[in-house]
Amino acid sequence: MGKMIDMQSIVVASTATQWYGHEGDILRDVFLHSLALAALVGAFVFMMAYVYPFTQIVVHEPNFPGGGRELHPAASALRERKNGSRKRSRKGGVLS
Questions:
Q1: Inter-residue contact 30 to 5 (CB < 8 Å)
Q2: Mean pLDDT in consecutive groups of 10 residues from the start of the chain, 96 residues
Q3: Residue 77: enclosing H or E segment and its boundaries?
Q4: Which of 23, 26, 80, 92 has its CA 20 to 30 A from that of 61?
Q5: pTM exceeds 0.85, yes or no
Q6: Any residues with CB less than 8 A from the CB of 55 and at least 6 apart, and which?
Q7: Residue ranges of the domains in the chain?
Q8: Cα-based distances in Å from 33 to 16, 57, 58
């Protein structure tokens, strides 16, 4: 959506179609489509948040024994840091 009103994309489009000097016309035409698409996406997000059948589309966090936070390997390292435990590096130094 943001790519439609990007000036570089508009200049490339006007150069590719050999429609020089009409970048303002292209922006004016594309801007209305961009606003319509933003309204459509906003309406869909609103429905996903508040309208019953669409709220079922939202993916919720799974209930894992670790609280669902173990999806990424770095999550356990961050949890250990918060709890005060430290890991030792291969050279014997303490990682903070």
A1: yes
A2: 77 89 87 90 92 83 57 65 59 54
A3: helix 73-83
A4: 80
A5: no
A6: 48, 49
A7: 7-55
A8: 21, 26, 27
